[in-house]
Each structure stands twice: as C-alpha cells, then as structure tokens.
Amino acid sequence: MIALKNCKAVTISDGILDNATILIEDGILKAVEVKAEIPKDAHVIDLKGMWVTPGFIDVHTHFSAMGEPRARGGGDDGNEVTNPVTAHIRIVDALNPFGIAFEPVRQAGFTTCYTMPGSANVIGGTGIAFKLKEGKCIEDIIIPGTEMMKMALGENPKGAYGGQKKMPMTRMGTGAVLRETLFNAKQYAEDKAAAEAEGKPFKKDFKLEALVPVVRGEMRCRIHCHRADDIMTAIRVSEEFGLDFSVEHVTEGFKIADILAEKNVKCVVGPMRMIPSKMEVWNCTIENPAMLEKAGVEFALTADAETATRWLPEEVGVAMAYGLSEETAFKALTINAAKIINLDHRIGTLEAGKDADLAIFDGHPFSNFTRCKATMIDGKFEFNELGK
To answer: How many CA atoms lie within 13 A of 75 on its CB side?
Structure first.
C-alpha cells in the first residue's frame, strides 16, 4: 500500500481537503481522508502540502496520430481524406504508443486522453480512450468500450471536398451528406435486424455497419462544430435521428449558451486561444468558458492537440483570469471530461473505489508558476520527481 500524506487533495466529489491522506492499493484508491489511518506496512510519502488532483483528462486530442513531428509533404494518419464518409475507419489502427507526446503530456499531470480521427470528413470514424502509461503495443493502453464516432460540420469537410468539386461544397451539402448517411444506416440496421430474426443471410456494408450502434443510440457521436449555426445544425440532426451526441470545440457557444443549457447539450470546449486562422474561429474568446458556466452549461475543456496538450492547464488558468470559477475549472479537466467518454465510474474524482490515477503539483495546478512533480496511473508512478 502507498500512503500520500499531508497533501491538499482536490477530490472533486467532496471539495478540497487540507492535510489529507490518500491510500492506494492494487491500483485503486482506498481512502481519501483528512484523518485516514495509515497501515504500518504502507510506503508513506510526505507531500508537505502539495496539491493532488485526479489525473487530468483531455477528451479531444489527435494524440500520436497526426504525424508529430510532421514530415514535409505529409505524415498525417488522422485524416482519411478520400471520401466524406469513412465511418468504418478506427483511430486505433493509427495510434502510436511510442509517440513523442506521451512523456511531456504525462509530465503535465494527464493520465487519460481520447484520440479521434480529424475533421476533414463529415463522418470520420471512431476514436478511443487510453491511459498515458508505458506500453509495448496499443492494446496495453487503450480502454475497450470507449469507441465513439467522429463527425464534422463547417469549413473543414467542405474545404476538403469542395475544392475537388465533390459534395459537400457547402454547409447545405454537409448537412445533406450527414442526413442521407444516417438515414441509410437506420434502414440498414432495420433490414439487418429483420434478416437476423428470420435467419436469412445479410450482406454487410462496412461503412453502414459501423453506424448501426450510432443510429440505435448505443454509441455516442462527437460532432466538430465551431460556429453557432453549425452547433445548432449538430443539435438539429442529432435530435432528428435520436443520436447520443456531444458538440466539440463550441467556439461560438457563448452566442447560444442559453439553448445549450436548456437542452443539456454535452460540450467539449476549446482550444481557447486560437488565432483567426479560418473564418469560423474568428470569434474565439477566452471568456467563452466563463459565459457558458454562467448560463449553466456543463462542459469539458480541451487543447485539441498532441504534445501541446501539456499546456492545457495553463490555458485553463487564463480562462479563470477571465471569469471561470475554480470549481468548474477543476471539473472541466476531471469529472466532466470523464462523463463525456463514459468513464466517470472509474476516473475523474479522488474517491475510494476509483482507479488510482492522480497528479501531484507543487502549487496551484492551473498556475504557470507550478510544476507537476508526479503522475500516477493505475497506482503506479509513470512520472516522479518527488525525490529530486
């Protein structure tokens, strides 16, 4: 057993506990208490007032899939820009467990990330969650059962295909491609169920087969959308087909924050410091999270990056300077993020029974004067500078 004593524990579920003790055994949190009794045989580490948080989670990355470092002339394994609908591709086939992003992001306090295909396609394929621990193959780190379908609206898909004089060239075309594909997938699912019930053979279609759990509401879709009207299109189409969905980026979410709150839309917000590199992100503002919080929207925050994911805590700190509360800031990188990827039963808070995924900081975790000193995943230190 490991005992971390004399720490400031950001439990998320029970506030911030001063002079707390955290007990860890067999990769699981056993206790997080102010006066926890430490077993005599425990390995005790005195943190001397350091902050301990649940391991941070970034639920929208392109981690180890976009060819980092990027070679001239290509290297991107995250966008299959050959057809606007590639529902059958899986990011797991491109995710590199030896990618250079693992170490620096782990050293910033992150323990779990979610990688998805990029946003070139209207329907881009499935992503997956993984722990930032060392592994020899992808099967050592991924979390099976976390697959979700990536979709995209706005400038990216129309930019990828419009120049080729292919549909979609417009936002109208993007909506049409999405609706037609979902309609076909729904019909395919019904035909498949009828054939199976009658014991008849059924010819599988790879793309539509991948969308069956989506149209049945069994697999969440993650819909890339920056502009307010694109966010509303994502909501409109999802409601039309009964999809379980989240909206990703939500750059102009502040313009429709009341609608997002009323409909209880799951939101992943960020990056928060984008330059106006394309028209649809022209209104990016660091005040977006605070305005969404004020309206009652629950959201996770993302860096939408690979190695640069390590700077997300600093960006959260800047968002706090512009009105985001400390409580919501912590939730946005922990429990709210865990809920997006349906892992809140395992990660996202410091409480007994959950995975022993945590990060230790020598100051406030969102201050740019602070350093992460250790990161633990499944009860094992994957990064540790406590002795230095």
So the answer is: 10
